[in-house]
Amino acid sequence: MPGKKYEPEFKQKIIKEALETGNCSIVGRKHNISSSIVARWVREYKRNNEPAGINKNQLINYEPTNIKNLEKENESLKKLLGEKDLEIAILRDLLKKPAHMDKCRI
């Protein structure tokens, strides 16, 4: 009995997710596929530097300009995250203040 055929784009997505998480079992469960299949796809990708059934042209292109753009985006996202963390800390601090401190006396 032949196995189920998966689209190359789907395989690419699964491989990328498995490499990012480092856990084939979780990725397999999430997408309702056997973890051994996910592990095999990842192994083939690492061995050939190309997933089975996926053309190299379909893979993400990591040119230096793309890396620089990603680094810029990463920095701006870090800054935004820092601002949000500060905002949360301020709001938590305000919630901790006693009620009688809310009214300002001049």
Automatic annotation (TrEMBL):
Superkingdom as given in the UniProt entry: Bacteria
GO biological process terms on file: DNA transposition
Pfam family, one: HTH_Tnp_1
Entry's Gene Ontology molecular function annotations: DNA binding; transposase activity
Protein name: Transposase
Species the sequence originates in: Thermovenabulum gondwanense
